[in-house]
Fold each of these.
Amino acid sequence: MSADESGEIDLEYELDDRPPWLESILLGIQHVSVMIVPATAVAFIVAGEVGLDAANTAYIVQMVLLFSGLATVVQSYTVGPVGSRLPIVMGTSFTFVGAAATIGDTYGLSAVFGAVLVTGFVVEGLIGWQFKRIKSFFPPLVTGLVVAIIGLYLVPVGMDYSAGGVGAADYGAVYNIGLAALVLGVAIALNLFTTGVTRLLSTLAGIAVGYVAAIPLGVVDWGPVATAAWFAIPHPGAFGLSFEPVPIVTFAFLFLVSAMETVGDMSGITAAEGRNPTDEEFRGGLLTDGLLSSLASVFGAFPVTSFSQNVGIVNFTGVMSRHVVGIAGVILAILGLSPKVGAAVTTIPSAVFGGAVVLMAGMVAASGVRLIFVHTTLDRRNMVVAAASLGLGLGVATTPEALNGLPTAAQTFFGQPVIITALTALVLNTFAPGEQSPLFDPTNEGTLADSTEQAAVSDD
């Protein structure tokens, strides 16, 4: 796609265009294919960390697909003030992985879903209504650092899965490492050396090749698929709901982080038209994040937010039609009503899954770094903000025992790399003078400096 100086690209289909039905369905399937692996990966990782069995893991995967689909449809068409009427595909974000796993292991999944129920509605709902007042506090330096730490934090998780999964009897076995390397190699090769759909589906193709290679090794168990039902109605309170102060505070801050991701993705979508989102689009998009996440928690799904890889598809293909994305949402919701689909995802061997997670985590980190480099001048001030934020975030990620002297509640909150990085970046960027600080107007600073210099010249 070519672009003019404003950044607008030549669109094959504009926002309200309706491509022919067959073409729309195929384009919708492409959106689903790109996001289904990372979306279900979050559920898979958290379920593994808290020790859920195959049946409960499959149920969470099912709920993630269902509510990702419902949220995508709402974004495309709106329900009252909820929804942006933009082609935004929704799914479960890696932002919540660390906290959901830690809190789920410490307090139980009921505390995770209780915290999401409260904070999704209150925190991100409030952000949606009042976004104009706070958006200056989250410039590219802050959001870029948050995205980078999300990816860096997940790399060790991916390596553990690549080795077979923590606690597995065959952890570190050669065939596990080989399967992970195969997935990684295929995905990288297709992404770098092919074009079109093959490149867009490179991660999915890598997993498919790894899955086939794992079958003769005897590490694929189809038992859960055979026993799973074809269709099932979700039931509320599947894992219960409990309300603990520390999980609520933790998820409140993470929803603030998630809101910034969604803002960036919405801006990336409308950039195809050479414009920024309107205040109504921002508000409706953020309300979808918060309210649908709260609703999803009642049924046992993790928070939903916008998916950046699908923003890339819109810009790559030039297909901005929200009706195409609406079809993708319907497909996701239908898949979410089938336990067999959730069970099929759980048959992916840990090593195969790990090879994909390593790549996805690295891509998330690289996206954060790119956001910083493109939109931020790396002067001394910004380097200090980045160094302190990443240093503390990676510090608690790699050496969590350093916080053992703190109360348990403080360990849970400050032990989250995403939170400590975001909090450090937010505070330092706000109070340190610089062009990205909301408290200092660079234009006024420049005028004052020019006036002082001119006065000095006049005095001479």
Amino acid sequence: MDSTAGKDTTVDFSLYGGAESFAEGRSPRRTVVNTPSADDNGVSYPGPPQDPSDFLWLMTEEPHRTRRMAIIKAHPEVTKLMGHEPLTKWIVMSVVALQLFFAYALRHTSPLSVVFLFCAYAVGGTANHNLFLAIHEITHNLAFKGVKANKALAIFANIPIGIPYAASFKRYHIEHHKHLGEDGIDTDVPTRFELLCLNNVLGKTFFATFQILFYALRPGFVRTQKLTAWHYANIATQLVVDYILLKTLGGKALTYLVMSSFFAGSLHPCAGHFIAEHYVWDGLDQETYSYYGPLNILAYNVGYHNEHHDFPSVPWTRLPALRKLAPEFYDTIPSHPSWPMVIVNFIRDDEIGMFSRVKRKDKGIPRDQANATCKPTDGDEKCHVDEVK
């Protein structure tokens, strides 16, 4: 039987940048491969669409430790890339100063005005997203050699965000590295409730718009933390600074900072990395994706996400060097060509949704277990954990 029967063969889909896959009932492939291989040519789909009724449950170990060991064996000089980056603290200070300046400059401007909204989105959203990722970098003790100095800098970087979160983020994020995808431990993964409620275009639009709230509130429902002195220091510092801003500059200045934080985690070009990093695409069972585009300049190279999970002790300035050192490991892995399009495709594609995450069964670690310390020179699993006291 002629397979073309009943089809419109007059349309040249090659003119529409991959739109020929619509004729097959699937959206175009979204990820790219820098160096095609026998396993993935970067054009065809590696696998069938995922079942949208559940997460992708895997029994395999998370891939980063295995690849880290292989890279260390093939390129032992990789350990020279590890260590702190002194430049980080100067960028943090500059961005904090920038945000406080705009809060001062807009202290008499209506929050509903075009000028205020534009500044809060374009300047404030970008700046506070940069601070989110500065705190992420500092969480891995990559700004200073000492742990306490890093924690203090994270609290300082938190100031323009308006809401204290740096101290609690630290433990949640270290657990995200050590227990990637583990149900009930990795709070980066959506809950079953989110899957059931948000698995449609409207639900995904809502999620993408209010991502920052999901990441702020979900951990409290999934895995609560015991507060430490650093949590209290973070909360106290933020409350004092917010009070001073209210008394000296007024409510509009603080509104600017909080709106900046909202926009930073909403429909903002940089916010595409939240979805790009670990959502499963194109029928793959790959759970971490990199992005090598220009927005990395504003985001501490967090787009180099496979590289970061493989070597959390390599600071942001040296992640491109890590990829260059081991191209045979990274250039054959599918990556995202655009963060903004990740948000668009996440919302409109049926094949991607809240279900598109890898999950593993909880290994049963105690919920009050303290994480071990990590030295910058550690090249193995130790560098996935850190002290929390």
Amino acid sequence: MTRIVSNDEQSNIESNNQSIVSSSAPTTRTYKVYRRRFAILAIFCICTLTSGFQWIEYVIIQNIIVRYYNESLPGDAEAKNNAVTWTSLSYMVTYIPLMFPAMWLLDRYGLKITCSTGAFLNCVGAIVKCFSVDTNLWWITFTGQMICACAQSFTLGIPPYLAATWFSSDSVSTVTAIAVFGNQVGIALGFLIPTILVPDVPDISLIGERLRILYYAVAFVCLVCFISMIIVFRPRPPTPPSRAQEMALQTSEQNYLQTLKRLLVNRWFLLLLISYGLNTGVFYSISTLLNPVYMHYFEKTDHASKYAGTIGTLMIVGGIFGSLVGGYVLDKSKAYKTVTFIVYLLSFLSMVLFTSTVHLHEYVAFVTMTIVGFFMTGYLPVGFEYGVEITYPENEAISSSLLNVSAQIFGLCTTQFQEYLIFKQHKVLISNVMLCIILIVGGVITLLIRSPLRRQNAQHGGDNLLENNVACAVVSDTNAIVNA
């Protein structure tokens, strides 16, 4: 049966059709960013700075720590060195299981609760170490270090999430680099300050006094950072800072386990997991064992222990500039895969340069390790942002945390194998060649990634087709009713 439609009814239907099309068409919207974002970024950088500092503060003066805590360290000389090495490795071991509850906490309760938990644990660990200044109290030192290691799980994967949540789309890569930069500054200071403050002298009491100063200063900064975070941090801004972030909030399924499942079946992301883990694992290994590597070549020179800290600082300072340059280039070019591969290739070449010239002179090592740091540390934010691009609209913190899990696993394995080559086989050169081979493998894997840049597509209107299709479908259904 066909129903006759009056002229008034026809006019109303046509008006409704136009309204539907108009409402479903893409609209221009102005997105707002808030001044609070700078305070949040600054406090977060200080928090990760103290975390990075405590990660490396013992291994860079490993020979001094072994001598000071000798009474309470286990076994022979090799076992004592291994115990100190584990102050760094503990960060890798604890991160792997604790990342999952940490990211669940972020998914459920947001940025403030998650970061505050990390800042609180970091503060508690630093305070515990204040009670360990005695030659027979190594177990207290290590307990405090383990608590600080647990704290890292709640902050290490945050940078891309913080950048996307609080900053505009044209600055997320730079902000991610700055957030990573905080951790790198902490590592640089961790290389430098202990070697300057704690002298390599026979006087054990003087070493203890300097360690006390170190512990109290770090604990004070951690406490101030935790209090500031409680006051200033917010889970997210009142309104999204960009179109991509707004779409991610609307379309991303808020289910932590489902997000993990989707990420772990994304073949391009799995390739990035491996390549990122290999590169960052090499960085962790050479940072942890920089003292014995350097001492192997220059132990007989004056101030060898202090110079080991200097070379580590130069590596991180180079990396800070590398991180900022990498973030800036990504924001301007959006060529994520190209930039990632180029940085990877240059990391390999710089490691080859270091390996082949480190024996020539200590000042040559200063220059080559700065170059290594520029590219290898500069890779960290680049890899983070590439991971966000190929997994959008998934939670940025979860994807970056999985990248960090891969880095910790490869870092742990690489460090243990390099430690075996250095302390048991006395083959320092072979251990450095091994690191070069690992970087070759990671670079080849990076070339295999073929994923589209999903976040860029969303930011520049990749969903228009879907919106227009929906509009056409609604209009078609309305016309069908009229003709029935």
